[in-house]
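fyi for ur records
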Amino acid sequence: MESIGLTEPHLIAFEYVVSEEAQVWRMTNTLDEEQESMSTLAWVKVHKTSAKAQLESQAIQRWGQALSPQLKVPKVIAVFDTCLVLSHCQGQARTEWSSYECELIASSLANLHELSWQDQDTVSLTEAFIKRSSSIFKLKDQLMNILQPLDPSYSQSFLKLCTLLSKPSPLGEHSALIQRSPCHRDFRSEHLLFKYDEFTEACSLSLIDWGQSRPDHWSSDWTKLYLEPLMGIEQKQQLWQSYWQLRFPKLKLSIKEKQTLPYMLHWSLALHTLNTLKWAYMHQKSGQTARHQAVDQSRNNQIWKRALYELEQMNNFTMTQFTL
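which gave:
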């Protein structure tokens, strides 16, 4: 009990939190049954497989902890097969950030991508991207049959993104930009928590939910940031500029490589958006038991809603917004 901040007996409650990929419970405590206010002690997260639980645990311990003290991350309290017990990170998530907060986020992301590690994957990133896009093309007709009756604009956007992905990947020509790096892969505002000291006004940043963390292309941490529903384009541009100002000195990119960065982002966004559609389709197609049918249907509706929103957002993307 001391590992989660309790040194004497307390009443503990568990509150289920809706999540798309794992089952999550918030562990809270109170001194007595009549006390209304509860504080979060820890989080209990149950993955679908023990392998996924191990991957999140390893990402937090190897990558997240390496970014301390600039960036705070949850501590892994315990791992039991598919279950993780994680410490609670204090702070508030926001969708509007000050210039200083943007710099803090950009710096943390750049530092994550530049962590030293050894890539042991035998499949190159270019080959991996081709496999991902090919798996989507196999479902092109099925997805079109779903999108067309909903709204013709959905099917038109879908075809545009498929056309973009059918072109040669921009990753193949620029070796300095196609290396795998440690990636969070769910980098968005609700996972970024800010906490200000009430006396010194010092700001600390925490990055939570490392469940999708894998070695991947740097752009995988920009897809959900760009697709944020409440974040303005000016804020996205500021983050983009700050991030690359930090990375340029170490990467030493040519002018041509710098000019390719917006196209890389566009290509990666297209792949991500189509993959979300594929995920929604596969989730809907998968067998659902009567016991979990209501939960599965609710989750499926969430995924489809997000997929269609991302499809709409891609119509607003212009590469000139991200020219450096």
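The longest helix spans residues 255-285. thats all i got for now
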